[in-house]
Amino acid sequence: MSEPFIIDAHAHLGRPGMFFTPESEPKALLDLMDYLEIECAICTDQLSVGEGCEETLPALRNIYEKSGGRLRYLAVFNPNRAAGCMAAMERAKNWPGFAGIKIHPSFHGVPAEDARYEPAWQFAAERDVPILAHTWSVSDYNPVQQLSTPARFEPYVREFSKVRLVLGHAGGRGAGRREAVRMAHEHEHVFLDIAGDIFCHRLIEDLAATVPPEKILFGSDAPWLDPRSRLTHVLLADVSASVKVKILRENAVRVYRIGAKSPC
What we know:
Layout: E1 6-13, H1 26-36, E2 38-45, H2 46-51, H3 57-66, E3 71-76, H4 82-92, E4 98-103, H5 105-108, H6 118-127, E5 131-134, H7 154-159, E6 165-168, H8 175-186, E7 190-193, H9 203-210, E8 216-217, H10 227-235, H11 241-255
Parallel strand pairs: 1-2, 2-3, 3-4, 4-5, 5-6, 6-7, 7-8
């Protein structure tokens, strides 16, 4: 490729206060994107995950504009602060760079099928924006992950069948990933991203063999993980070049309605 073409569909900005992420500012992410020829990223503000998006969306719009359109942003919907989040999302719905909604049932302590998420799904359906959801498998050492297993999203997937849902982290490992794969097969608008510490042998080959390649999105989970740890899984995978291009760019263009030409 003569110019950057990769889209990172799962990245983060800012410091959450609970983990050590020293290179989490926009400049650090952009510098790394330049080095790795990543054209643009879909970002979640880390403080928003804990607090909701009421106070953060204007700053994220400013970051998008200063980045030349390379750092798009998601509005975190916190069901515990639903009214404030919905008001902020309504204000931001037509802003440049607004890419969709992020939900994180495990962090917010609210199971994915809970009725408190309905306003976010309704907003996504009416505004034609995707939802990126944290998903993972049941974990003995991190029991709140049980709130985000892929199948728990299924009642909303059925009710809002046209909403594009990205199962972040592809459901995690083991049973979570099997659920995510099944849902990608059974539901037209369910997609998987590969962000996170999933270092399974032949991950991309297995996913591309079990779900349509149009359903898989590259995501780095930066700054938690260096994007190179995810990129090598794709670039060195034993799949065709056309499948790699779908994963690294084309699928994100469709899901997040990104323009085909630079800048994003």
